[in-house]
Write a structure and sequence with these properties.
This protein is an alpha/beta fold. Among the domains are: 129 residues, Nucleotidyltransferase, domain 5, CATH 3.30.420; 199 residues, Carbamoyltransferase, C-terminal domain (DHBP synthase). It has 19 helices and 21 strands. The strands form 4 sheets. A 9-stranded mixed β-sheet has the order 13-21-20-14-15-19-16-18-17, sandwiched between helices. A 5-stranded mixed β-sheet has the order 3-2-1-4-5. A 5-stranded mixed β-sheet has the order 8-7-6-11-12, with helices on both faces. A hairpin with a 2-residue loop joins β2 and β3. α11 packs across α12 and α14 runs parallel beside α19. The longest helix has 28 residues. The protein is globular and about 65 Å long. The chain starts with a strand and ends in a 5-residue tail after the last strand. The model has no long low-confidence stretch (mean pLDDT 91).
């Protein structure tokens, strides 16, 4: 049975293909077509791509699922609107219905995507509630037989959080947190106030917080607080959370309105203007916001532990991308094991809705878990070579073993590498197939990459990719993090050796690499370790203020316009002219 799962008309539009319950392909729309970060709208290019990878046509599809259900929590939505903005109720409901009409016409939109008559398509459409899709995405991709589940984000189907008990192939909802109370909206509002006002920039606040002190924590607790029984409260005096409809531009960008009020300005002073100097105040605001977020989340998770007697927890939703908090959950709660799906944000609901239909609705048994993220397209060496010739780049072809040895030598000598191999990663992280790599201890490497290659804020950290069996040698927590979902303290004696990936608070966004998950990347790190003595490489996404590159042409274009020294693409290596 072939199931296409999608996220559509919501940020991070995406599609996946599941065959007999097994994930075959998954990709975000932003990697294709217009290449707009967090693009909303309908994922037509992603649908075509996953069908191509799976070698199926539209007539072979049995179900199309979407992580959105217009009727879920509808009465709560109307009540929330009537309470907060009674004069806007008619327009908001009309906007909502416009979104629902688009979702309800999925069959015709897929027919248009493949230029077919709608009558030739026989698949069924299943709408699965947003947070239920989030939970399903992590639970069914884990290898847990049972787990407690917590999904939390900005909003989806008028809910910002959901607790669940997961067992076998079933997910039982325990509790929902309804809008306007939203931890995601709290974090986003502070993010906007600090001057990061574009959609999806919350990770910048998490990184900036390492430079500050939580001096504003008492004030943050006035804005967002934990109550009882797993419930949190957001004060409407300071924050007006965004609804689903106000976030999305149906055609292109995902946008979000200003969510903080004048009272927040009275509390903290004038908001920072984007592009202006980042002062200690902004660093302290970020640290205070992050700590308050962690405190509330840990109380929520501890309440969940009382409800579900399992040693396992699965989390999902945009808030589950907060790696600092994820490490605290592992450290400070009763849960012994955790799993976070590699596309934990809204793109992951495509997988969740499809898996929920296969397992929960159709009652099929669980498949093996998903322990890697390589579900995107792959391009042959023949295709790559055509792109190199077209771009007029000089190149040399190597055997795999020589490619690894040569690349390791370049890394050890301080060169910055564009590393493009195999299938692209599913989710927001570059995990060793669409990565920029460098020596983790080379002097000034962090500053060089941020300034000359990524062209972004100087405080932004990079990830250490480490051989999995060496984690405890370098990090204070022995965590397996194949999807780069945990920010962990680096051991004191290793901080100089990992200077380029050691953040201001001595942490690193851990990426553990196992040979069974990514053989080529593991072998490259091993080759580098043989030369340098360090089983770690600096890893950041292969892009420059754009979605991560997916095609050979995109990788070559990125290489040509920035200061990456060496491009290792397939079995080919190309050097910048200055390095000849």
């Amino acid at each position: 049975m072939n199931i296409i799962g999608i996220n559509a008309f919501h940020p991070d539009s995406s599609a996946c293909l599941i065959v007999d319950g097994k994930l075959i392909a998954a990709i975000a729309e932003e990697r294709l077509g217009k290449r707009v970060k967090h693009v909303a709208g309908f994922p037509s290019e992603a649908i075509k791509k996953v069908c191509s990878i799976g070698n199926i046509g539209p007539q072979d599809i049995h179900y199309v699922t979407i992580g959105h259900n217009k009727w879920s929590n509808f009465s709560h939505k109307v009540l929330n609107l009537a309470t907060s903005s009674p004069l806007k109720v008619p327009n908001r409901i009309l906007n909502s219905m416009s979104l629902h009409r688009n979702v309800s016409s999925l069959k015709s939109m897929i027919a248009q995507t493949f230029e077919l008559d709608e009558g030739k398509l026989s698949f069924k459409v299943k709408n699965i509630e947003h947070h239920l899709s989030h939970l399903a995405s992590s639970y069914y991709c884990s290898d847990f037989e049972d787990a407690a589940g917590f999904s939390y984000d900005g909003s989806g189907d008028n809910v910002s959080g959901m607790y669940a008990k997961c067992s076998g192939n079933k997910i039982e909802i325990i509790k929902k947190i309804y809008m306007p109370h939203s931890l995601g909206s709290f974090y986003t509002a502070i993010c906007q106030f600090i001057g990061f006002d574009q959609f999806g920039e919350e990770y910048k606040v998490m990184g900036l917080g390492a430079f500050g002190k939580p001096v504003f924590l008492p004030d943050m607790r006035k804005i967002a607080s934990y109550k009882t029984n797993g419930e949190y409260h957001i004060s409407s005096e300071y924050i007006h959370p965004s609804s689903d409809e106000s976030i999305v531009n149906m055609v292109d960008n995902a946008n979000v309105k200003k969510m903080y009020t004048d009272k927040l300005i009275d509390l903290f002073g004038k908001p920072r203007i984007r592009g202006s100097e980042i002062t200690q105040r902004e660093m302290d605001l970020a640290a205070s916001c992050q700590l308050n977020f962690e405190e509330i989340t840990l109380q929520c998770v501890n309440w969940l532990a009382d409800q579900v007697p399992s040693k396992n927890i699965i989390t999902a939703g945009g808030c589950a991308l907060n790696g600092v908090c994820n490490a605290k959950i592992r450290e400070a709660t009763r849960f012994k094991n955790s799993y976070i799906q590699c596309a934990a944000s809204d793109d992951g609901t495509a997988i969740g809705s499809a898996q929920y239909v296969w397992h929960h609705i159709l009652k099929n048994p669980r498949n093996e878990g998903v322990d890697h993220a390589y579900f995107g397209p792959e391009y042959s060496d023949e295709s790559i070579e055509k792109s190199l010739i077209k771009s007029n780049l000089p190149y040399v072809r190597f055997s795999e073993s020589e490619l690894l040895k040569q690349t390791a030598k370049y890394l050890n000598s301080g060169k910055v590498i564009g590393w493009y191999q195999g299938r692209s990663e599913w989710g927001p992280r570059a995990l060793g197939n669409r990565s920029i790599l460098a020596h983790p201890g080379w002097p000034k490497m962090k500053e060089t990459i941020n300034l000359k290659i990524k062209r972004r804020e100087s405080f932004r950290p990079f990830a250490p990719s480490i051989l999995e069996d060496r984690v405890s040698d370098y990090f204070e927590q022995d965590i397996r993090s194949p999807f780069m979902m945990h920010v962990v303290k680096i051991r004191e004696l290793k901080r100089v050796e990992l200077a380029a990936v050691c953040h201001e608070d001595f942490t690193g966004r851990l990426h553990t690499v196992k040979r069974s998950q990514n053989r080529l990347y593991y072998d490259l790190i091993s080759e580098f370790c043989a030369l340098s003595g360090t089983p770690v490489v600096l890893n950041t996404s292969f892009n420059e203020n754009e979605p991560i590159v997916d095609t050979p042409d995109q990788a070559i274009s990125c290489f040509q316009r920035n200061d990456v020294d060496v491009l290792c693409i397939g079995n080919f290596i190309s050097l910048k002219n200055r390095n000849k």
